[in-house]
Amino acid sequence: MYYTAWREDGQGMSTTIYDCRASAVEATAMLQGIWDEFSCILIAEPKTEYYTNTQNMLFEKRGWGRR
Q: What residue segments make up the domains of the chain, in order of their start?
């Protein structure tokens, strides 16, 4: 899953959720290529962070199960 959010001033973030760390590592070269194409409009280098857990709180709170 891939999400992007930004404010009126243009500052924002992108989040990608992979099924496992190996899938994330495999996608690294492709993502670097994408960010390279945007480098002319970025004011700072993208920062990569890794997290070990995710939870879809909206669906679980409403009893819809995991998606």
A: 2-61
